[in-house]
Amino acid sequence: MSTEGKTITCKAAIAWEANKPLSVEDVHVAPPREGEVRVRVTFTGLCHTDVYTLSGADPEGAFPSILGHEGAGVVESIGEGVTDVRPGDNVILLYTAECRKCKFCTSGKTNLCQAVRATQGQGVMPDGTKRFTSARTGQELFHFMGTSTFSQYTVVSQYSLVAVDPKAPMDRTCLLGCGVTTGYGAAVYTAKIEPRSTVAIWGMGCVGLAVAYGARERGAKRIIAIDMNPAKEAWAKEFGATEFINPKDVPPVEGGDAMVQHLVAITDGGLDYTFDCTGNIHVMRTALEACHKGWGVSTIIGVAKSGEEISTRPFQLVTGRKWQGSAFGGVKGRTQLPGIVNRYLQGEFKVDEYVTHREPLSRINEGLEHMHEGQCIRCVVDLA
Ligand code: NAD
Ligand code: AHE
Ligand code: ZN
């Protein structure tokens, strides 16, 4: 029986309030309105950013809401005016939308489409309303990052999803909705790492590993992975790192940053490219200052805690180091993700290897716990 035009009742993991476990219960999902698409979400990865927002630290975190932004699924129905996808299409959801019309999309300078960004940050659809209602309490629920993939059905803007080859297994390609694309893209599209260069990456989670993978593809000659978890050494090397440093093994120095001094010493003056994939503002400073004078570029990917700020001596920048950031790896999702999926299908792009854990929706809280255990790169939740 067709569900088109009807409200669907399904299971979703609701974040009722900050710092409380998610609650898997029934929600009503209204049909898509003009320019919107309703998607049956099949799989979602759990990203550190979901945990960050659930902790209450995200200035854009609104409760009660349905979190999740690393998802794949199948288009169930479309609203008026939707042209690029149709029911039955396999899609990846995009927290970085791409409208191809706004000043940002047409600038040729950024992937940060602004078509739906303001309402996305407020947890509502572009028309200012919500599509989710709790079946238990009748309360409306906020959307999250324009995607809300912790629900069996979600409604998104037509700019916040992309159809991909249906041969691609969604239980892995969901990771292209955030972590894998973010790290790889930061290395390849944002930093544009040059062949034979030296690279250091802090944080060997999914994002950092994908940076290492991108750096290797770009022909970097040294890829130094840095993580306090010794178990990450093997992971880092599998994804292309040539060396591993545990910050705990670098002896402290008086009146300076021991890691900066160590890295500058072993790289003849500093790194060509560094990346923060931890969200730690002290790491961000170290990563900048470990860059080579005159040309080193440091890219911030990690999401820092609410209210935190970065600092360094301006002299670090005056003397030629550059500080920049990267969101979703600089990737324009609707334009570029189908190509990345095709490369994956041709065996030219790693995705499967990041999946270490799997859980059903009913155990999504256990999935979030895996993320703190030190062995988890990505946990994929099955929403079926
Ligand atoms: P993760 O938690 O899986 O991995 C983080 C790694 O950093 C862990 O291995 C941890 O041991 C290590 N680490 C923590 N503190 C460290 C320190 N001081 N020095 C060295 N290593 C340290 O996280 P993830 O999913 O890979 O995400 C990484 C960061 O990127 C998070 O902050 C996340 O919110 C952010 N993120 C940003 C974007 C973006 O578009 N900018 C996209 C996805 C994720
Ligand atoms: N909402 C937060 C910022 C969170 C943040 O930095 N998000 C990253 C993506 S993290 C994905 O795991 C991002 O891409 N930001 C750019 C954007 O447009 O959201 C805050 O501080 O308000
Ligand atoms: Zn994410």
Task: Write up what this structure looks like.
It is globular and about 65 Å long. The protein is an alpha/beta fold and 384 residues long. The chain has helices at 48-54, 117-122, 170-173, 179-190, 206-217, 232-238, 258-266, 281-289, 314-318, 333-345, 364-370; strands spanning 8-14, 23-29, 36-45, 70-78, 90-93, 132-134, 140-141, 153-157, 161-163, 198-202, 222-226, 243-245, 273-276, 297-300, 322-325, 355-360, 378-382. Helix content is 24%, strand content 22%. It contains 11 helices and 17 strands. 49% of the residues are buried. The model has no long low-confidence stretch (mean pLDDT 98). The strands form 3 sheets. Strands 3, 4, 5, 8, 9, 16 and 17 form a 7-stranded mixed β-sheet that branches. Strands 12-11-10-13-14-15 form a 6-stranded parallel β-sheet, with helices on both faces. It has a 4-stranded antiparallel β-sheet with strand order 1-2-6-7, with no helix packed on it. Nicotinamide-adenine-dinucleotide binds next to helix 1, helix 4 and helix 5.
